[in-house]
């Protein structure tokens, strides 16, 4: 009998996330992390595989969910939103989280948002046109039903970070 994801979770037999990744899969992922537009031909040349074998591996990584998508990284300043802020939001225990998250999803200023642990309940990355726009967005966050308090930091400089698959 084949194990489904649900039965593996309930039995505690879930394999390690990267258990089936070999060095070639990791090399392909590393290359795609640095250049998501790399062609199959370029990936094949870098890994020593044929283009066909590379295509099969990439397809399998996508099917398994290891590659969750291909995205463009944009320069928000060139899009007219040069001021970025990390806002933390603390909500009351009785807050309607679905309503709050829906508001976040509908906002053009929200780049991304996470529910987090610790003193605050949400971390929200905002991209704004100006400091008055930041003020307006923070005011809008504070005025949401169930929001207890907010805190915000202006993002000054993005530090290059690890993006590999080790």
Distance between the termini: 33 Å
- Helix count, DSSP H or I runs of 4 or more residues: 6
Going by helix content, strand content and strand pairing, the class is alpha+beta
Helix-strand sequence: HHHHEHEEHE
- In helices, the fraction of residues equals 25-40%
Mean pLDDT, all residues = 89
- Flag low-confidence runs: 1-15
Q: Can you tell me the overall shape?
A: elongated
The assembly state of the depicted protein chains is single chain
Computed Rg: 21 Å
With strands numbered from the N-terminus, the spatial order across the biggest sheet is 2-3-1-4
Largest beta-sheet details: 4 strands, antiparallel
Q: How many E strands? A: 4
**Percent of residues in β-strands:** 15-25%
Would you give an account of this structure?
The chain has helices at residues 5-11, 23-34, 40-47, 51-63, 97-106, 131-142; strands at residues 83-91, 110-115, 122-128, 147-155. With 166 residues, it is α+β, with helices and mostly antiparallel strands. The radius of gyration is 21 Å and the shape is elongated. Strand 2 and strand 3 (122-128) form a beta hairpin. Helix 3 (40-47) packs across helix 4. The chain contains six helices and four strands; from the N terminus they run ααααβαββαβ. It has a four-stranded antiparallel β-sheet.
Q: Briefly, what is this?
A:
The protein has 6 helices and 4 strands, in the order ααααβαββαβ.
Structural features:
alpha+beta, 166 residues
